[in-house]
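Discussion board: Methods & Data

I've been asked by a reviewer to show the raw model output for two of the constructs in my manuscript, not just the figures. I'm not sure how much to include, so I'm pasting the format here to get opinions. Each protein appears as its amino acid sequence followed by a line of discrete structure tokens. Is this the kind of thing reviewers expect to see in a supplement, or should I convert it first? Here is construct A:
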Amino acid sequence: MIDIQTTERPPFWLNNSTSSSSVSSMEISDENSIPPELLHSLRQHSLFQRTNNEHFLEEIACHMHLRIYSPRDVIIVEGEPSKAMFFLLKGSVDVCSADFERIYATLPKGSCFGEIGILFSMPRTATVIASSKCIVALLTADDVNTILPQYPEVQKVLLFEAEERLALLNKSKSMNGAERISHKPLTERNVEEFTGARNLLQKSPYFKDCPEEFLHHISLRVEPRHYAPNDLIYKRGDEGTDLYFILSGTVELVNLNDTRSDIPVERLSSGDYFGDISVLLNKARAADARAVTAIELYILRKSDFIKAVSSFPNLQQHFKEMAEKSLSQLKTKAPLLFDTETGKTDSLMLDQTSKIKPSSVCSTTSDQDPTLLPQTAASAFRGNETRKRRASVAVWSDPYLVALANRNLKQTNSEQQANLKENSVSTKTSKSVDFYGDGRLTLFNEEILGLVVEHLDFLSVLRFAAVSKRCRDFVKYSDKVFQKVDLSHLNKRITDEVIESIVSLIDGRTKQISLSQCFYITDVGFKQLVESVPLLEAMDLNSCWLLTDKSMATLALSCPRLTQLDLSNCRKISDAGIFQLLDGKASRGQPQLTNLSLSYCKKLSDMTMSHLATFCSQSLVSLNIQRCTRITDQGFGKWAETRFPSLSTLNLTDCSFLTDQAVAYLVTAAPHLRSLSLSFCCALSDSAIEGLITLSELQDLDASFCGAAVSDVSIRSLLKSNVLEQIRCLNLRGCVRITDMCIKSILELAKLNTLNISQCPGISLNAKQNIKASGSIINLVA
């Protein structure tokens, strides 16, 4: 880190002049040299707006170190001693897991972090890295302890902020096992420790214009709670003991006693509140509250709320008037709720709606990864899921593939070495081989023999070459051989050294090659291989872990005909590599990719989606971005600016951060989709499925384990709309909101060949028997 004194001018930290790998710092020691841009940034900071003390700002500005962090630079590490607090002046930072792979929260400009450790002498409670290029103002612990006592009001605000976050942290850690069952990782559920309950509560319309001290009392008393999809939060007729404030997810107010319980009285989402009518007006709960998605919320006990508001008489009357207004609105929306005496909800209905099989809980395949998080009650439940993660491969090395082939050919080592040496002679022209006078081979001409050899695996072709000299000549010279080469079954033996011998054998004839699971190949061996196959049209590089972006540039240069590529689980391929491949093909006028698989390439981001829109929009037919968790709605926003007229197959499985907006962009950009997988896209809602209505050619939809995205209403709307091309395959496995009404709609409107409704707790055994008895569905999984 370079320290730069006050002689440096403000443009140093405002311009993009720092290198991508360095973190620069500027210490300000003279009040007269304080950059005006710095003071302006501090004035705009939410924490300092609350202090409203200009002298304090000038004082801390003189002691601040300004640091510029490049993207992915580490700012603080969980567990380390706390030596400074930070004010984010520009850019954004990520709260992330210890391995930096999962992002739990993004803190925007104006955030403050690190004050808990300074004010309470605690180690760091989280790891923070730069999300984008950002400017951070740093105050050391010594400076804080020296300056703050001189400004009691400011010290009070900072202590409030730190006390609120620490209280929430302690409550999160003291939650029992049952309360911790959530679809988010344990660490992810403590994001509030970093953003503060105050920041979230003061955005709620319920606490608009409330005094500072009142908000502080409330922030100290709220408790985090988590509910799974379809969980009953409270029942109609219950006594009101809690207020609820939604942080994320969706809640429905319904009447489960009503036969039309699938129609909600009201649907609430992030920023909304409920439960105030019963708490403030001493009335029983007027409706049932049910979680539609996995939800995160704060609860405020009635006793705590009354205690906090008792010191503010004006607020007490204000909240009571708000509750009466809410009650009036509820009576207008659902008068039937108040026509009959409020009683207990039918127990049978509750059993059907609140009891969910553990295997039906919305999760992602990362939940089975033991390296991510410690075992919890939720992860134990998810262990019953039948979807398995990619199997681990035991890695071992044996570079003697040719020697193995020689033993199988029943020839001596010396003879095989002579054969391989002879085969290594390169030729660019095909030589016609006659097969007369060679025993049973007289039955086959070259064309028929070529068809036979085409169905042999690589080692069997080598065995065939050892039958006779003429067979060896056929393998060596015929253009019917080695057009398709599959080395995946030899994956543990394929190394850079073995590639040298393989190159001499295939001799530029190959059009399709599979190196799936060949995890020993590096950029060096790959370069040698692709430079020898200029006719290559399709390549499978699944789990070639050692390949980097350098190989993508080589591929574009050496294989002009390549249109099908599988890069699944190539961990080191980044946005830059995809750009080098696509831009290289475009600059040389080569045909672009038609089939591309990028599943489990976790380094890819929205930038890759932009590259695909730029280079492949007209050619792309099939795309797989399963588990590319850094791709967000913004990536699909790039797609909305163009069209993908040929795209018919898209796999978005486990893209758990995509929302309804991404689907809206998608249906606009790719109107001719025929096959779409949204499995485990848990952030979607009903609107996403209903948005697929415009895909008139859709035939295959996988919406398994989509949480709130699939309901009786959305499925009926979708089936009813597809009049041009009926859906033939529908996967609704693990969709907790669908009921027997969905089965009725399927029987009435759909002409399915395949249907999966397994692990759907809302579908009765009788409904499953009815659909089996109908015989209308050929492949049924129930």
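Construct B, same format:
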Amino acid sequence: MNRRYVSLALCFAVAFLAVPSLAADQPVPASVATPLEPDALYLRVGTVTLDANASLHRTAAAPLANGGWFVIQLDGPLSPQRQSALADVGVRVGQYLPSNAFIVRLERGYDTTRLTRLPFVRWLGAYQQAWKLDPEIGRPQYATPERQAMAQRGEFAILVTLFDGEPVAAVVPTILGLKGAVVHWTESPGDNELISATIRRADLPAIAAIETVQFVEEASELTPRNDTDRWIVQSNILNVTPLYTNGIHGEGQIVGVLDTKLDINHCMFRDTVPIGPNHRKILAYNTSTGAQFHGTHVSGTVAGDNGVNDNTRGVAYLSKIVFNDIPSFTETAMNTSLTTHHNQGGRVHTNSWGDDGTTAYNSLCRGIDLFQRNNEDSLVLFAVTNLSLLKNPENAKNLVAVGASQDAPSQANHCSGGAGPTSDGRRKPEIYAPGCATNSASSGTACNVTTATGTSMACPAVAGSAMLIRQYYTDGYYPTGFASPSDGFLPTSALVKATLLNSAVDMTGITGYPSNQEGWGRVLLDNALYLPSDTRKLVAYDVRNADGLTTGQEVEYQINVLGNSQPLKITLVYTDVPATSGAAQAWINDLDLEVVAPDNTLYRGNVFTNGQSSSGGVRDDRNNVEQVHRNSPGVGVWIVRVRAFAVNQGGPQGYAVVATGDIQAEIPPLSIHLPNGAPTEVSPVNNTDFVVRITPGSENIVPGSPTLHHRVAGDTAFQTSPLTSTGGNNYLASLPPADCGQTLEFYLSAEGDAGSVVTEPADAPTTTYSATLDSIVTLFSDNFETDTGWTVDNAAGTGGAWERGIPIGGGGAPSTDYDGSGRCYVTGRLSGDDVDGGPVRVISPIFDLSGAVDPTIRFARWFYNNNQDIDRLTAAISNNGGQTWVILEQATHAPSWSLRSFRIRDYVTLTSQVRLRFSVADQPNNSTTEAAVDAVSIIDDVCASVPCLKGDINNDGVVDGDDTQRFVELLIQGGGSPYELCAGDVQSTPNGSVGAEDVANFVECLLAGGCP
């Protein structure tokens, strides 16, 4: 039967039995193995091919006439070094779009040709209006009378996502100005503001035309989905429950349940103690109480207990519950509901409801993925649809999507659950548990049970299994199989999920394994959790995000297979960041699993043939679950490798690895690890230091043996330098400076006291790391957290004096600084303390740029002027210590932080007396005027081709005796800045250095007052 619960404009329907789906509207999923094209954007509106030759940074001859939102595409994944290089040319990357693209904000006047200095920038272009409207709007088959009536009127309930940081205040009036439009609410789920509205179909283009709107999608319609479970999920042997036998029943675990009303008076939950910390079962009930079938039934399956071993006992029957109603169907509401349960102790969250009207990755999915990314140790589970094809939000990346198998004795057969993959080709559902004719609590009765069928019934069974796994780790059962509090730790959700999926077994009643119907199979905990006397062993690695990988990094583990009677199963899981609104592909970060057998056969994650892993194939670029299975593994040491192909956002990226079989963790002699990765760029001036971690294994480190080997590419011999110990297992390696155009190749080595020599990379010097010259050098950087010598001149003002501090906001002033460090320079921190009179000025310390090549000055500025009259925020530069000034810009009313960049040579000659000044006034005193400045820096492109005046070594514009001393120093000592070398290299055929062959010509230049 179907029961419906209707709200104002959205509803959900209890659907226990599978019903036919409307397959005609289903998108054709991409092949999991199909790689993304490097020149394309994959958006919800379709795939857009980007012509590199048409990029703005190659075709624009002048600075941008208009600022706004743009997309920048790189030629590969974003690394920390690339992100820094982009920041150095004034680009702060925002949200990710596949493939290798990011949304960025560029201001009017930005010189796009600066990006030509960065060869990895492939394309730059404006974010197009045509990309903003979800093509799924109007396509769902609506279930509720309210939504059906709206569709007949040509109206839609929509969610409008604004670009990062854009305020809703400017958009809401525009929407309300449309005929018949209604704005229901606004939210801030993350960096993007969200607006819920009802509008006419004809007005969709008008919404998309708003500059600050990023994406428009349709609001969701949600549908709930619903004494053998306990032994099937543990052993699949009648009444055999090994986890219960060993003391694991859910003690200390809390499940969050979002569903219809839970009947607190049923014997599976009832207690005489009030709901709260002392209640035996329910710690929090975050809504009005009631008694409804669905919520009572699923709660009983996951955690119910009447103290009797019968149908009134759930899977994790000694765990406790925090409960709430199903939230409204937005990113913020979903994230808030899950966060509430997390703050009340919930670390596993079961949800048996969903939206059968769409297959899109939408705001509901983003809310779930955002929650799990922000709360690493909370695992969310969702029942998949009971329709034939996968729906929403079980298509979110980080949750566990659960289907229903039949009950004993047919638990190897499918019962209910939509088949995947997701619309962007990811594998869901992932795991099954019995959900046919499941016995559990019957609401409105004292202690009766009733049967129900559907994925709604399977999901709480898997959630209960997840709590048993979590207790296994928290109570210290790993690695010995016995409870040992000293071994206990708090597992990440990635580790719990990896263990859960590693335990799963093929459902033989479904063709193919793994498949888009059964995922990784039916849960069987005894396959993964090692307990005393088990032949199968468990090896687990849990790496949190703070200790994770960035683009290009990898880590290896060694697993020793002792026998081939047990299958070898290795599982990688990581928790990705939420996808960008409007992107067609949900995945952002990409870790890959590689497993190398003792015979050097390479197995890639998720490459399967005939039910087990096979060699060959291509890496999986979209699933955040990867597995390698071998039914009869070779005996010996297997290498398990986790590669960070791309960490585009929110990095570093943590992960969990679980291996099971007749195995033990192999201890190498030594291990060398680069926790922050190997540098890919080196300085032309200073040594480039990086951290090396060398960990003893079966051997101790020979003192003095840790070594860095390096050479210029093309040379034969490596130079060596010892690593510097910084305490414990940590060392510091130091690469020397490089010249323009050079690439350094390098590797590391260390010796064990039994004679082993370990290198990193492992096959060095055949394989080495490489680093090219980073021609961008930071000469000055100030976030205003400390006093670096700035001065203020506020004498001419009667209010709004410049001061360094944490802004408070109000009256047009910023409420935060630009870079998040805290402080900035602002004209009066207090609300209402705006500029009166003036000008008031803040002036930098003196910068010596006499040896710079092609420096750029950057700063972030804020300027508010409510009259938008003649008052300006003026930035000026001086090269004579402040005696005279040249204007860089005069900013008009722009009450948001804007990052500005100026090439200094375009304004003044480089000297040792360069200063920067910001001035603002309210003259006449008739307006509210507020200004702020933050994040001032000077960078230099030391490899830029900069013209010089031959012989003018001190760069003062003339060739005279003042140049002689420095010429002699360059002649005798060598070195020198690029400009000095250019000016001093006066021979007829320049060679880039100052030598004896330049002396005669230099003397002639002196005598003539200039070089010919």
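Answer (T.O., handling editor elsewhere):
This is acceptable in a supplement if you add a one-line summary per construct. For B, something like: The chain has 15 helices and 56 strands.
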